[in-house]
Amino acid sequence: MADLKLQQIKKAFGDHIVLDRFDLHIRSGECFTIIGPSGCGKTIILRLIAGFETPDAGEVFIGDTKVADAHHALAPEERKIGVVFQDYAVWPHKTVYGNVAYPLEIAGLTKSDIAKQVHNALALVNLDGYEMRFPYQLSGGQQQRVALARALVMRPEILLLDEPLTNLDANLREEMRFEIKEIQKATGATILYVTHDQEVAMALSDRLAIMDEAGRIHQIDTPEIIYTHPIDIFVFKFLGISNIISIKVSEHFASVKIKDKTVELPFVAPSSMEGKEGILGFRPMDVQIERKGNSADFPAIATRVTILGPIVDYLFDFQGIPIRAQALTDDALAADLILEPGEKVFLSVHEPKWFNSEGVTQQ
Amino acid sequence: MKDLSKSLKKIDVSTVILIFSILILVVIVAVPVLLIFLTAFFENGKFNIAGVVKVLSDPNTYNALLNSFIIAAGTTLLSTAVGTFFAWLVARTDLPFKNTMKALFLVPFMLPSFIGALAWKVLLSPRSGYLNKLIISIFNLEKAPIDIMSMGGIIVIESMYLLPFVFLQVEGALERMDPTLEESARISGASLFTITRKITLPLVMPSILAGALLVALYSLSHFGVPSILGTEKGIFTIPTKIYERIYASGGSFSAIRVGTILATILVISAALILKLQDVLLKKGQYQVIAGKSMRPVVLKLRGLKYPLLIISFIYIFITIILPTVTIFLVGGLKTYGLPFQLKYMTFDNYLKIFQWKMTKDAIWNSLYLSLSAALVTMLAGTMISYAIVKMNFKGKFILQFLGVLPYSLPGTVIALGVILTWSGRFGINLYNTAAIIFVAYIARYMAFAIKSSSASLSQVSDSLEEAARACGATHWQTLKDIVLPLIRPGMISAFFLIFLPALRELTTSVLLYGPTTRTIGVAIYTLNEDGETVKAAALAGIALIIIFVGETLIRKFLAKLEQRAVRVKEIENVAA
């Protein structure tokens, strides 16, 4: 098994610096995801590891072997890495069998060994029986599985996946997501997965790294910790829709300035925020809606209620501040909370997050 | 895994490709062009603009320049007007037999224009033209009513054979135009005439202009028609003047120098035309011309339907059938000038074509030169396209520039450049050998190869190659197993795109041929020059048969290839 290390990497295209003094360590055998908005350089990281790009400065290690620095680089074919591309990159002139067998043919295996291993790899991605088909006879999801089988057939210690699910429809995406997880368990390979889809990242990863447009990593941790303890406002926002309110804290309580009016919010701020401006954030799902309130709650008026299947999406107005909330449809039905616009309810927020004016999470 | 330091010792495939690409373009294209410019502007090692002015102000050269531009302008106007009309007729009216007509209007592509010119000279030359004689006897005239051997004649004949360029462009644009644009004008109450003038015409204007510029580019550098119809009457154009100078002086340096000055003007004009076309095409097309085919509004011709059909048939009869039949009939005459009666006809001339050494050589030369040039140019063009499309390196723009250079080099210019380069200046003398024609063909058709290969290479997504590298294939294995199989259809069509025109080439080879290295085009041309009209026609007839059979077979073959390529493309669409 092999771990992956990027040390002090610099990469620029012309004047555009994509990565600068970039460090990353991916442990052996883990499923690691880099998630970030498009154009943040996450694909470049993958390409640097695969050997399709060379760093301007810094070093890339696979296990104990240095595979690239500013002066030398091992060719991609010498790195023994499996790669799955966003556009599948299944060779249109080869059959499914031909595609998956190609790495083994290059490695010079005997015909019978090739047949056996291709068969195993196709079984792993549930494509047995498709050997003699050409890619144009396959659906997008099947082509993607061919690409996966082709990357796996060499039993690589490292598997790189570049947004492999982006071009699939929602059902297929979910199916493939679990399949990749299963395959990782079965093969034990180190997986680096690059995506902008936070749902896939959360479902798949042992650890994930969240990157911003400037190519800077904000947080690396397990999905649970990232979700429960986002290190800053960028990470918090990235993981889904949220209520973001600019506030000023005085005497423990947050207040918001709307036009010329100051609205007091019933939230107790952490002491480190005392007397400062900052941001309050909470997720729609963390908003509790009640017909009757107690002292900690704040009254709000429903302005929009939409049933999105299993969840209900609300928009409330609290003294001019819009607040987004969500509840499970079954719970809302049970509590008689399918509201009409204009109805008055009481809201409370479970564990709101506080950020200082630099966006760093405050406890 | 290998150690990092070991990877340095291998020879890198991309470096090899890069070096060869630059080498080929420099030797085949850049050096000849540079030598033309140097010869034109430098005399005895000194920059000499006065010499250039002196050559250009000589009435001989000056008139050739003027004629070239008049002929180019006239041909462009005439073929654009007529071509646009027929394109509209076929695309936008209920003219009967549309598909047949569409195919027929493109047939002149197959007919080499110098063979057409030869036929028209036989029919309409003022002294002995068969058609002229016929008209004189019918109407009892004093002298021939039509003199084809004039500026007007050259313009009309050239227009006939360049018309398909305009027809193809405009017809395609008219067919792909979004019909809702015209329908909405119609709903607004505009009459059909107004719609055509105010909506349709402006929308297809970029296509019309693109076709027109293509015609201008070809007719400016065209040798065949003006030399067959004009030279005898003292009408010279740039290409025919260059030829006349070089042959009159037996290839003296001063003649070559005049040639290079004229050639420089050709190159500059061609570059300007291409630049103009590029600008037009970029801002043109407006996006109203959709890629997919839609059903356009069709104008009902009513009473004009059959008159217009008859006009179209007459046009096709005049441009295709009449000259072709003439060539075969003249080729069968016992002596030129005899009337077309069975007792004066013989089949011997055709058989003799395969017995005379000169014509036998010519057919053989054309066949192997065009086959080998097509093969080499296609391979070299594929390699150069790969470097341009797929590789990243410093100074790529130099290669890109060298790669588009062949587009703006008319055949005459290439011939001159090749003479300057391969006549012993660099220690290699190919003059009067077949090799010099071979080298010139590579330069002449490099643009075709690069264009065709670039198109198919840009459809091969980079990730297909990267996937192979990640699978353990070296760069060379990736090229062999992935890239080449995927672009093979493009390479094969590039081969034929070069082979077919090279087979009937005249403009370049006429400046380069030696005693034993005539091509078919040169043989027909020189036979005609020597007054052997019957032999010229017989050889032309055989050339027409070779071209026609070749084109038909190849078209069928390419259509089959296309079907396979479509299958491959389908999956690219799924992936995208």
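qc> The two ends of chain B are 34 Å apart (CA to CA).
qc> done
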